[in-house]
Here is the input.
Amino acid sequence: MKPIRLMRGFLTVGFWTLLSRVLGFVREILLLSFIGPGPLLDAFVAAFRLPNMFRRFFAEGAFNAAFVPMFSKKLEGEEDAEHFATEALSLLFAAVMTLTALGMIFMPARVWLTAEGFAGDARFDLTVGYGRIVFPYIFFMSLSALFSGVLNATGRFAAAAAAPVLLNILIIPALILGHISGGEVITWLIWTIPFAGVAQLGLVWIASRKAGLHIKLRLPKWTPDMARMVRVAVPAALASGVMQINLVVGQIVASNTESAVSWLYAADRLYQLPLGVIGIAIGIVLLPDLSRRLKADDTAGAQHAFSRASEFAMFLTIPCAVAFLVIPLPIVSVLYERGATGSDDVAAISVALAIYALGLPAFVLQKLLQPLYFAREDTKRPFHYAVWAMVVNAALAFGLAPYIQWMAPAIAATVSAWIMVAQLGFGARGYGQVAKFDARLRKRLWRICLASAAMGGVLWISWVVLVPWFGLPGWRYVALLILLTLGTVVYFSVGRLIGAYVPSELKAAARRG
Here is the structure.
């Protein structure tokens, strides 16, 4: 077996994901400055969430959970993996084309189901109109997911990870041009999205051709392999998309308060930075590697891969969660408070971010634990776990809404994320040694938590000292930079002192890839 180089894969996917999320921050800053929380941004968020939700369900979720392990195993067994990918592409093309057409026809019903609080005001018609323009994005992104899965399974992560960057590369100048021209910035934004989908598909298609993979579009055929893939994919749709369903439930609750959809969206984009860079990146690399190791009966190698991925993820995730929990206000203020976004909006976004921070490690752990199941083509149990997590989420979101209104969805999402992790962790015990943290990780995990706590204490004290700086124009950027620098120095210094990590190991892992 030619193993996938895990650390190099993590760093490659992580780098491009980080670049995408940083550019995404620039996009959100421009959105909140030029448009600001209110009816227009509420409508855009609700409209764009529709294709994003289906992309996470069917493309990145169900399809990848079913396709990547099967393709990886055929590749490892030297079967005709390319023919299998061609069959999958043809079936996916027909299915997503149908879904896109139905979505555009029944857009009013979809908007009502996902944002019923918009009914009766201008946001409803705006969301329907925006939704019909941006919904074809799901078609291009679903096909991109197949080519990305093929590239990832062969250990080529760069092009697939770089593709999402194109969305923000195209949107940012569109927003600036719309603002400079004096036109409606939102119009420039929504028409750019489908074109970005075409660009992303083109990039991964060209990369797969250069890699020597000639995957063609043919008339779809219902073969035993396709039947097996669909049987695995259907429960995986819900198992992988639980977070998206929770976001939609939250949107339904928040839609009854003007600007609340925008507040939750802004907070979501912030905690999605570490989730995307760490959790999603590791999940993308870990799934094909586990699949190929299990096919080769390499149990020790699979456990090592799982433990090192978990160690790397927690080493980066826990301090991020602590920072979001301890200093959400200065972070949100510096990033978002300008133009159409005022201090009241910043306060609301900060509250949501602090709540989401409590669930950030759980969101990342889900991305680590799910590959243990998907690598074995076991999507039924994650499906059942997801159902329970969604029930809890819905009960808390709707149950708490009369008391704490728009904050209820954030609390519900955080609690349900930890319930999902508990179920995944408990269920994975049946997989034996592969699913257990090794001694090195067990020894270091509590040290990571201790170093993060020390960092949190320093951040809090430093923020109290620097509060006056955040009220001075221009100086708030300096103050936030000082906060983040101090936090980073303390975390790595304390972590090294108590053995949360060993610098030489990190360097060696990076060299080995």
Observations:
- The two ends are 16 Å apart (CA to CA).
